[in-house]
Amino acid sequence: MTGLIVRRLLQLPLILWAVFTATLALAWAVPGNPLENPEGRRPPPEVAAAMRAQYDLDNFWRFYWSYLERASGVRWARESLDGTAASRARAAQEAGLPPPARPVFDLGPSLHYKDRTVNEILWASLPISATLGAGAILLALLIGLLAGIVGAVRPGSALDAATLGVALVGISLPSFVVGTALLLVFGAWLRWAPVGRWSVGAAILPALTLSLPFAAYIARLSRMAMIEAMGADFIRTARAKGLSEGRVVLRHALAHAMLPVVSFLGPATALAMTGSFVVERVFTVPGLGQHFVNAVQNKDLFLIMGVVLVFSTMLVVFNLIVDVLYRWVDPRIEGPG
Amino acid sequence: MPRRLLLPVALLAVALAIAAIADRPLPRADAVLINRGDATTLDPQSMSWLQDFRVAKLIYEGLVRQDPFTPDYRILPGVATSWDVSPDRLTYTFHLRTEASWSNGRPVVAADFIHAWRRALLPDTAADFSGMLFHLRGARDFYAWRARALAEFAASPPADRAAERLWAETLARFDATVGARAQGDHTLVVTLARPVPYFLDLCAFPALFPVCAPIVRAHEHIDPDTARLRTDPAWTKPPTLPCNGPFEVTAWRFKRDMRLAHNSHYWDPARTNVDTIAIPSIDDANAQVLAFATGAVDWVSDVTTSYRGDMLAAKAAFRLEHAAAVEAMRAQGVDEIEIDRRLPDDPRAHIHVLPAFGTYFYNFNCSPRLGDGRANPFADARVRRAFALALDKRTIAQTVRRAGEPETATLIPPGSIAGYQSPRGLPRDVARAREELASAGFPGGRGLPTVELLFNKDGGHDLIAQAAAACWERELGVSVRLVQREIKVFREDLKNGNFMVSRAGWYGDYGDPMTFLEPHRTGDGNNDRQYSSAEYDALLDKAADEPDPAARLAILGEAERVLVERDLPLLPIFRYNQVMLFNAHRVSGVTPHPRQDQILDRLDILGDGKGAERALTMSGGTEARTPGSDKEAQGSAGEGARRGEP
Hints:
heterodimer; A: mainly alpha; 14 helices; 73% helix; B: 646 residues; 10-stranded mixed β-sheet; 4-stranded antiparallel β-sheet; globular
């Protein structure tokens, strides 16, 4: 197991470097000037040229290497060693200010939110998305497994058809419809939930909206695996031992049915925790998901790279966690991951 | 479920519960506003979005301020108590008030303005509106010099580089060549390159606002590799951010909310009528309206929901029920917001349509060749006039837009600039349109290549383009192809001349016709139409040299006439409206003035027991400040005028 973890963590920088190179090449090719306010007037040509030079936007390779140097921590190490960092901290101290923030992995400034660095944006929004996403995954597990079990116990029954139907609706209904409907009913009419204000305590509606597609998927996965398990020899053996039906279903069949669900949970958790553009918009969640869309629209290169790198990291890490969990849940699984 | 899986799930649930308890929402602020979008920056020199300007006018104060409740957007003393203008109109001497102070207690001094203006004039901190300071003598040359010096630095061998020396040279050069000088702490002398009749108006614009020099300087350093001045944006965040306006920023949580509180160091404490303002970040148009409906929000600056037209229809029905009273009030000159305030409180009346300082129009590409080298039929003014004369603007404004926006034949919104007389423009005349097209060699549209109409996705531009194309095909016999692009691609296509006709819009930045006319000058960076007329350029130059304000405005009116009646590089369609949500019985301080930038410093929640508790209305005075008459502006700086009361 340790070997697996070490191997995957060693692969991570290589994966990130490849993702970074491919994404930057694509993002760079998108037409349009990231520094131009689409609503405003164009600055005089010399100002426009200076704005591009300010961020190395006038040269792909200069941008590529300087970004790589800062994002990989090389710049941090260099400045720590050659004394630049120390002298800057001293200058701040003399002015009576806290020392300047100096992240190891510096993902650069945001071109649209000019007062924020990409690190700041990620620090502000990732915990919120992660909290909401974790809640949504918990809800999805609860709803999905319940529906899956109910369906699998009596396959073909009316209850099974109903849960399958709900799962189908959950997968097909876009979250802007579900979200807006929930907001209208519980926010505007019943006034049980705040509208236009985010707090973790009031996150039940967005978490529910976010969870529904995942819940539907889990319901289908667990139902199929359960039905398969219910016909298997070890279930017959369990019944022959005289175990109660509930124990048979919950201990033996479910344990088997969990495996596909757990492997789905890896990418699903990474996806849920990095936020959803639609859910964040409808419920005013200050999360990460909106930046996947807005950053591209604004051609905010630094922010695009930042969110893509974070998402890639989370995907690798959660797949690793799932593989570890797999072995922990079912020690029979062996071999390289 | 297998017991081993329960542990991670339970841990997750506990962590969530702790997070929920730790994250307590703040209490509701006195006033809650939804701005046009999230503030992108609080650095006044870096701003380029309207939502940023709006916040800037609450937390900063320039040399002068403006009263949005006077028809002429009257110039009032700000940090400067008074100013003298030299007879050649080139030198302004501003006398700064000694009691002006930053929220950190430091005095506002002339050096703060110099520092701010120098930042704007450095290519290192390049920002959209740096060009506004190019009016200062020597400013443009200084900018070019520094840009050249930086480029030479980058090209020089690393051993020869001396970034600090270049910086010292830059500071010395700025002091020696740029027309901005501090004489002691409280006198600022500004010298312009040529007379700018609206210079005081610019002084109320965020790019010219001061910054607290000692704090900003502490966040600046010279990058030894590039010699560029780098500024750590940490200075724009509370509690560091120094404010010298009526409000200060107490919290700014990214994509969540911004909180403002009354600035106890502001020299005129009577100006503010609320103690705290919250500006939550709500992007979704629907959620904005719902938040307003639940009472969580007091003012929504832009309503963009798809059902906006129905909301406006409901308001029209409400107004109809009180038609007689409305007419009587209008006859007395009562402004539209005050009319709602005097009518019974009704949720249907909470939506407001206010004229904006901008025009929706179509660009015609005037260059002989298109971006891809094809011949361009719109290089001929007769073709442009034909398309302008044929367009049914009324249908577009009334049945496509449905926001009560009036069709227009001029570029500058009529009535928005005091003393300016708009030309008539070209009224719709389909018969004449066909004649013009025939005289250009395309009778009945024959021989004209397929017309490409370029517009950007979103914002409903597709519907307007469809209506325009259908109208031209019907009336002129031409064929039109619709070309839809993402906004960034659209902007590139405009810049490169890859269009025949394109969607466009323009909002004014300051109260002078030049803010609309300058972009049509030959070679101007915003002249997407590539329009070039020696006669038009000469009219702008003549106006610049004209000392008499009234005669100058008449010349500018003639220039606009050339645009909208003769040469038609653009086709004005309708004047923009701003659609807002607020209850006039509850909120005061939102102005119906056609400039519509909304300076909300005197915002008041009526009935909360704080502030003046008296609704602000447009002052009836019709006397116009003719731009350029600074003495008169100074004369109006009395106490009564400052409060904007009639």
